[in-house]
Specification:
single chain, 284 residues, alpha/beta, Ubiquitin-like (UB roll), Rossmann fold, 2 domains, nine-stranded mixed β-sheet, 12 strands, 39% helix, disordered N terminus, transmembrane, membrane
Length: 284
């Protein structure tokens, strides 16, 4: 019995060694169990590196896009401006403000505002973009049609109501407006957006086309626009024509043209001509 116990003991003593031998065989076969904290560290490093690569890729694309846009912007920058019309380029102001602008982004409204602000006596008639970097402008010279009386001096208006210049002296038909304008606050290049003024200027242009010599115009409101007509060589005799901004402009122009032409054929004259109502009123 003693021998059996010693034998069992001997077997028990041998098992750990066998276990060690078995473990040794696992080690020898490469099946090493990596600690958990070591695996987590590797995962974190891999995740960090993927983020870095993503940011580097975005940065690279952004840089490429930046340089491409910069090149395109430089390629389409306006370098040449050709001016067509009865005007000298040296007389124009503001052209330097258009050079270097992107021809794609530059609008006709911006060009008009830039040029007409500095050149109120010119009208931008046409804009032609010749890609990639050339601009062709057609400008028309504007002549003043009438002088608007200010509290000091006069503002000279085009047929569109644009203030071309200011002066202390007058040499055109004078418009007396019921509202007083300050000389220093009236800015050259601005447009007067008054229906009475717009109607008056168009009627004045038509009257001059018919050979009428208009001395002055009194605007007392929408329904009272009075033209004073002077005869050639006669400074005393003056006729009056009454217009209104509340009636069709085309109808008043037609009536005026018809009456003036008819009176010339019939050698008739008038003292007052009132076109404000449905039917013209004539006083001889």
């Amino acid at each position: 019995m003693q021998r059996k116990l010693s034998y069992k003991q001997s077997l028990a003593n041998i098992r750990p060694e066998a276990s060690n031998i078995h473990g040794a065989s696992k080690i020898s076969s490469g099946e090493i169990k990596i600690p958990r904290h070591s695996r987590v560290g590797k995962v974190r490093i891999s995740h960090w590196w993927s983020k870095v690569k993503k940011y580097l890729f975005i940065l690279l694309i952004s840089l490429i896009g930046f340089f491409v846009l910069k090149y395109l912007n430089s390629y389409f920058q306006i370098k040449t401006i050709v001016v067509v019309g009865d005007i000298r380029v040296k007389e124009l102001k503001g052209l330097e403000n258009l050079k270097g602008k992107n021809i794609y982004l530059l609008t006709e409204a911006h060009i008009e505002d830039t040029l007409t602000e500095s050149n109120p006596n010119f009208l931008l008639a046409e804009v032609i973009k010749e890609f990639p970097n050339k601009l062709r402008l057609k400008l028309i010279s504007i002549e003043p049609l009438a002088s608007l009386k200010l509290n000091q001096g006069y503002a000279f208006l085009s047929v569109e109501g644009k203030i071309i210049k200011k002066s202390k002296a007058k040499y055109l038909p004078v418009i007396n407006f019921y509202q007083s304008f300050d000389y220093y606050q009236t800015k050259v290049g601005n447009k007067l957006d008054y229906k009475e003024v717009a109607t008056t200027l168009k009627l004045l242009q038509k009257s001059q086309d018919l050979g009428l010599k208009i001395d002055n115009i009194d605007i007392n409101g929408l329904s009272m626009i009075v033209f004073t007509v002077k005869e050639s060589g006669d400074t005393k005799t003056k006729k009056k024509i009454f217009f209104t901004a509340e009636k069709s402009l085309e109808k008043q122009v037609f009536e005026l043209e018809t009456i003036i032409k008819q009176f010339k054929i019939e050698a008739k004259d008038y003292q007052e001509l009132d076109l404000r109502f449905d039917k013209p009123i004539i006083k001889f």
